Amino acid sequence: MKNEKICVIGCGNLGKSIAKGLLEHEDFNSENVIATRRKLKLIEDLKPHGAEITSDNLYAVRNSNIILVAVKPYNVDKIINEIKPEIIEDKHILVSLATGLGTNEISEMLDDKIPVFRAMPNIAADIGESVTCICGKNSSVEHTQKVKSIFDAIGESLIINEELMEAATILGACGIAFVFRFIRAMIQGGIQIGFDANTANQIVSQTVKGAAKMLQENSNHPESEIDKVTTPKGCTIVGLNEMEHQGFSSSLIRGIVTSFEKIEK
């Protein structure tokens, strides 16, 4: 991937996080990364890492072969119409990060000229720990591997069927906010039972990190790991049962489903 020239159009929080991940990864040549934004001062910190920054989207497309469009869904049509004159068949691949826009819609905007992908990372891309779901249209195995390599540089990625992309948005992208809210509640509980905020934060953050890593490395169901911690008449099972009595799991599931119903509309 060192010879691939990549532009990230619209470096807001997510686009900038992806650009940073590429710049810091050894498989990519930082000199081949172009980042665009109207307000250049907001992405100037990418320059010391080797990126070229510009507010000229046409220039960025002209000098790249993989285009990441990281703008809001309502701006995708505008951006594609802007860059379309510079898009060349057999040269470019376009990856949209916009929620709710299908590959068919995007391909129609481009007159079905080039491979089109949708990708849904989350903001943990900023530290190289995103999970990204990807689907494509008019794409070869080689195209797919190139796109996957980009998102593997900022965490883990997987190829899924397009009909699951909205669900992936909820579980992966929105889901990180749900996890943060859970962590915040644990910290608040820690403060109530005697810890200062910083110490509670440290304990909870590492606990969550350890739990996630155990699931990844052991490939066990969460319930089997819970069984290792709960003992008869112990404090863990009492706490878990009280949370369930108060609707912990059902509230989380309802929140996920409600977010999904919103995106489906």
TrEMBL record:
Database matches in Pfam families: F420_oxidored, P5CR_dimer
Listed InterPro entries: 6-PGluconate_DH-like_C_sf (IPR008927), NAD(P)-bd_dom_sf (IPR036291), P5C_Rdtase_cat_N (IPR028939), P5CR_dimer (IPR029036), Pyrroline-COOH_reductase (IPR000304)
Entry EC number(s): 1.5.1.2
Organism of derivation: Marinifilum breve
Matches recorded under PANTHER family: PYRROLINE-5-CARBOXYLATE REDUCTASE (PTHR11645), PYRROLINE-5-CARBOXYLATE REDUCTASE 3 (PTHR11645:SF0)
Residues reported in the UniProt entry to bind NADP(+): 9-14, 70-73
Keywords: Amino-acid biosynthesis, Cytoplasm, NADP, Oxidoreductase, Proline biosynthesis
Pathway in which the depicted protein is active: Amino-acid biosynthesis; L-proline biosynthesis; L-proline from L-glutamate 5-semialdehyde: step 1/1
Any one biological process term the GO annotation gives: L-proline biosynthetic process
Entry GO MF terms: pyrroline-5-carboxylate reductase activity
Gene3D superfamilies: NAD(P)-binding Rossmann-like Domain, ProC C-terminal domain-like
NCBIfam families assigned to the protein according to its UniProt record, in alphabetical order: proC (TIGR00112)
Family that this chain belongs to: Belongs to the pyrroline-5-carboxylate reductase family.
Keyword Isomerase: no
UniProt name for this protein: Pyrroline-5-carboxylate reductase
Domain named Pyrroline-5-carboxylate reductase catalytic N-terminal: residues: 5-99
